[in-house]
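Q: A reviewer asked whether we had any structural model of the full assembly, not just the individual parts. We don't, so I'm hoping you can provide one. Inputs are below.
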Amino acid sequence: MASFLPALPKRLHGPSVWALYAIGFVPAASAFYLGATGQLPGNAVKEFEHLLGLWALRFLVATLAITPVRDLFGLNWLRYRRALGLLAFYYVLMHFLAYMLLDQMLRFPSIVADIARRPFITIGMAAFLLLIPLALTSNNWSIRKLGQRWNKLHRLVYLIAAAGALHFAMSVKVVGPEQMLYIALVALLLAWRPIRTPFLRWRRQRSGVARPSPATEKAAG
Amino acid sequence: AAALEAVSSSYKVDEALTPEEDVTSYNNFYEFGTGKADPAARSGGFKPTPWTVKVDGLVGKPREFGLQELLRFPLEERVYRMRCVEAWSMVIPWIGFPLASLLDKVEPLGSAKYVAFETVVRPEEMPGQSGLFQPLPWPYREGLRLDEARHPLTILAVGLYGKTLPNQNGAPIRLVVPWKYGFKGIKSIVRISLTETTPPCTWNLAAPNEYGFYANVNPAVDHPRWSQATENRIGEGGFFGSNRRDTLPFNGYADEVASLYTGMDLTVHF
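A: Here is a predicted structure for the entire assembly that you could use as a starting point for your response.
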């Protein structure tokens, strides 16, 4: 399928990924600056914590959206997937650190009680732990080394995204449109996985043009 | 908000006041939206005057009170701690009068055991009450036991920081019960009814395992989803100034109110 956007010149592919990293950290950096200088209104620590969590979820959704966007719209943004996934991990890490250091101020008894007794925190913490092996293997060396096992391991991202959306919905007093939006997005992206192969086969047959099957395409991390 | 005269009272917490800016910009008032900034941002179209509060139910003299009459009660300034069920807190200089003085005027009957309160319903002025997504059923309702309602700490507030109440804080008249979680402090009250049975309370009905009828501030009874042992004082310390402090039983008013609950298991009646 022809892309409806002009193609990015190849020499800009690398720099555009670094630009994504740079832009990706802007929300955290600006909120940290505002918070540290006392310019975040109200409950500064909570605002910061929530902002980090929300951006983590956004980057997770963006990571999962790369494949359907290519399948449906012919936009190949696979080169950004690793950066988006790692940004999601860094935001979850910062979200966790903000909770530990700024919110709880390392009051370990209350942190342990939170993790053990509060399902939404248990779920969030589990998602964070599951993200660590994914972040550690988000490099070319690991992809080569692990082969097919890498693909298997990185399927965990679906579970992590579901846990993230659930964690968000369970953390609020009333589940509102914002929580529903992320639950719906993650549900759609999860649903795409089983639909994808039959959909691509159906489209290939319909157009009568031979395309490489998705299974033979190389994962790009 | 217009200037409002009030005499000083002995009910003054000896702690730093939460800045007016925070008191009037960080609010839970779902009638204007569920975000903390929504009430300040979206309450501009709300008209707190004219206003009447209907007082009825098990009383000898049911009647309506106009706002002007309510403002003629002897107004006092009271500096109270305000502890939200979400584990944050403020210190607020309210202006108001004891609820008991209002109740005296309507002469509660001997059969009255509880006081029920209702917030106004005005979807055209309160954006959170219209549209596809409604976080709670309206009107917002709250209730107290009659002895809690008559306690000298319980006030109807008509102002804060020397001025009439801003819309986002519950203009023109709201309840303040400093030893209970903030959601008990029902805002923009239009009706007060005395009843024989426990009145329906909005959050209690929405999630009975999370929000009890009593909702007394209690560091020993956690909310199912978070600890109530500590609280964040709003507008203090920012990121690094240690602003998490221990929550006090009955929000620090145990000497005055603990006797109301003698013999009750507060982990059951939370």
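A: Points you may want to mention in the reply: Residues 216-221 of chain A have pLDDT under 50 and may be disordered. Chain A has one domain: 10-207.
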